[in-house]
Design goal:
Layout lengths: L1 E2 L3 E5 L5 E5 L5 E4 L1 H9 L11 H12 L3 E2 L2 H17 L3 E7 L28 H18 L3 E7 L7 H17 L3 E8 L6 H7 L4 E7 L4 H7 L9 H11 L5 E7 L7 H10 L6 E8 L13 E3 L2 E3 L35 H13 L20 E4 L4 E3 L11 E4 L6 H12 L12 H4 L4 H8 L9 H16 L5 E2 L1
Parallel strand pairs: 4-17, 6-7, 6-14, 7-8, 8-9, 9-10, 10-11
Antiparallel strand pairs: 1-5, 2-3, 3-4, 12-13, 14-15, 15-16
The structure holds iron/sulfur cluster (2 copies).
One iron/sulfur cluster binds next to helix 12 and helix 14.
Length: about 475
Amino acid sequence: MKPSVFNVRVPMPSGEVFLMNTLTDAQIVASNEVVRLLDSLEARGAGGPADADERGALDTLVEHGFVVANADAERAALESRFVEFREDGSQLRVTVLTTLQCNFACDYCYQGDHAEHGRPAEKMSLDTAGRVAAWIVGRMDEVRPGRLVLTFFGGEPLLNVPALMLIADECARHAASRGVTQLVNVITNGLLLTPGFVDRLLPLGLNGVKVTLDGDRETHDRMRPLRGGQGTFDRIIENVRRVAGKVPVSIGGNFDVATAERYPALLDFLREQDFAGRVSNVAFKPIIKPSNPQAAPPPRFIDGKPLIPLTSVDAGRQPLNGSCMSAAGASTGSVCDSCHFADDQMSFLREETRRRGFRTADGVHMGPCELYRRHSHTIGPDGSLYACPGFTGDNALSVGHISGRRDTVQADAAGRFERLAPWRQCGDCSFIPVCGGGCAVAAHTELGDMDAPSCHKRSFESALVSLAEEAVGDPSGRIQ
Ligand code: SF4
Ligand code: SF4
């Protein structure tokens, strides 16, 4: 017997120790005697527990996975966990980008049809939307899930409502006839969000709307203006107010070294709003740093602090024409909230969010992400298939097409994603079950190598301290 490599611990001021096993998700507050027992296991070899108390404690540790038979068995359990996650057919998840067009000119975004690139972004035709719906119905018949989760994203998805409605409507009809529950999520910049739109989608399974705000009014209006430069904050807030009684609204945002400190002001503002109790979740993510700083546009400054541009651009400073990075990145009902940690700011924002009574991700249970689900797909405006929203528009990383055709580049990319297992490079890291080696988009963008782990261990460690502090407030789960 030996202690699990997936044990993590936080010493508490009381002298006790918070113990968590990231593979079984067991969490206990243990006395020092129990921790000493755990630490002495390997040293004592075949020697069993000294007395009945020790035997009882050891049985509890084994039951919750803190003590395992041997390293090989534990590694095998980890691999089966990932296989189970990959093959899970209980739900079919499809993210559809009905357009890459956007009515915003976000300071950090160099994608879509921004004028400086002089070319129009793609918009899904109704013909393609019909074929997308047919493809999804085909997948429903193959997978036979209990649930179909459709997420609409962009660009700005509300710039192509006809395609969105056609897909949601067709899928809802076929899901209902197969006894499948359809859930619909929309990730929007909020500018065109109306009660009428929400009313149309509610009978089709609308489950939540995620709206992006990048800070308080001043910061948001500077970061996410309209193309003409006008601010958008007040209009978005009014739109959220008008729909919040009808559907759960979550708030997502992007931060940078210059803007993270403005988030508390946004949180205070949200807390004061009459719809605060209807905000289902608040999630933030840092703006991505480029892998090649030479390829990035010249640095910009806000209040004398450098702005890190979100540079989904290639080495020639051409846009990768990808999805709106204001929300890309999986989990907790959004397209993705688990990628691109900026360790210290993430824990600061998490604490500030919680202090104001809003729900947010705990920062420990972050992965593996949607990329590793076989039955999770992202579809671009032209019907191209991608492994996740963060790779949308990068033709070299498309994995196929809804038509069923797959060229050699796509076949190569599909094979690469199939083999992707960055956690195998993470040795005995205790966070592998809840991290899976991090975000492949972040690794691709920041490191230029999607196969490499994108490691934000410090973020996990600081989130673990918060989780421990909460657990200590709960007297259940103590073993002496
Ligand atoms: S690879 Fe990154 S962006 Fe893609 S689903 Fe995973 S965490 Fe999200
Ligand atoms: S990426 Fe880092 S935190 Fe994640 S499993 Fe690997 S070593 Fe651990």
